[in-house]
C-alpha cells in the first residue's frame, strides 16, 4: 500500500492530515483531543481512498446533541455525514440524542429501524466516557440493527443497558466489535462500567463480531434473557449469587443468555437457584461448569452441546433436571454426577438416548473432588471420615463394592 502525508496550511491549527494504515484509526482518534482530525488512507488507486474524521463535543444541552455536533463540525470545516469517530462529554443524553447518534428510530410497537443515510451515517466509533444518560441508562433499542457502528465506549456512570440496545437480529450483519470501557478496549477485554447493574434482554443478541474476553461487572444484579446470545465473546464467566435472570418481555423463559458464544467456563455462585433454559447451549469452547448446592432446577437444554465439558457435578440434594439440560446430541461425552439419589429427573430425560452417562453419587454429605477418582467415580471428602469405596446394587439386587470401571453403569446410584 502507498502512503502519503498531506498537511493543509489553512487548517494546520485545528486539523491534522496524515496517511496511516487502517489499523491505526482507533489510536489516532483517541489522541485527537479537542480537534477535528482527518486521516486519509490511500491504496494503489483513488477508488480505495477513505477518510477517517474525528470530532469532539465538550458540552451540550440534553436533547440538543445534534446542534452541538453540527456546530463542532462546522467550526472545523468538516461535514457531519463524514464523521467517523465522535467523542461526547459534558452533558446528559436522552432518547432524542441517542436517536441522532445511532440513526435508529423506534415505533410505538418497539420496532427499530436503522436509517443508513441519516446524519451520522459514517459513524463507526463512539466514545461516551465523559457523558451521562438520563436515568444512567442506554435506552431500549438505542443502536438496534445499526450495522455501521464498530466501537462504543460507555459512560463511566452507566447503570443500565436497556433491552435490545445493541441487538443485531435479524440483520445479523452488524459490525459491533467492542463495547465497554476505554480501559477494556486497550486490552481487548469487554469491561463494563463498575456501576452497571443491569444488562437487559437481548442487549447484544446477534452481534457476531463482538469478541474478546468478557468480564461481568461486580455490581451486576440483573442479566436479561438472550443478553449475549450468538456473540463470540470468550472468557471464564462468574455469576454472583444475587444475580436475577430476567425472562423475556413476552414471558418466554427460553433464556439463551450465552448461547453460541465462545466462553470457556461458567461458575455459578451459591445463591443461584435456577439455571435458565438454553443458558449456555451450543458453546463449542465451554470446558467447565460449576454448579452450587443452592441450584434446585436446571431448565431444558441449559448446557446442550457444551463442547468440551467432561463432567457435570450437581451437588444439590433436591434438583430437577429438565429435558436436554445436560445432553450432547452428537458427542455423548458427558459424565453427570448427582450428589444424592433424591434428584427429580424429568421423565422425558433419556440420557441413554443421547449417549450420555448419568451417574448418581450419594455422598452422605461429602463433597466430590474432581481431581480424584476411583474406577471413573469421583472420590468424596468429608471431615472426620475416610473414603472406603463405592457400593451399588447388582442385577440380582445384592449390594456389591465397585471394583472396576465395568461396575459403573448409566442411571445407577452409588453410595
With strands numbered from the N-terminus, the spatial order across the biggest sheet is: 1-2-3-4-7-9-11
Distance between the termini: 70 Å
Question: How many strand elements?
Answer: 31
Give helix % range.
under 10%
Q: Give the rounded overall mean pLDDT.
A: 81
Determine the number of helices (DSSP H or I, runs of at least 4 residues): 5
**Spans of at least 5 consecutive residues with low confidence:** 1-49, 346-356
Morphology: elongated
Structural category: mainly beta
Biggest sheet layout: 7 strands, mixed
Strand percentage: 25-35%
Rg over CA atoms, rounded to whole Å, is: 27 Å
Structure characterization notes:
Strands 1-2-3-4-7-9-11 form a 7-stranded mixed sheet. Mean pLDDT is 81; it is low at 1-49 and 346-356. It starts with 16 loop residues before the first strand and ends with a strand. It has 415 residues and is mainly β. The protein is built from 5 helices and 31 strands.
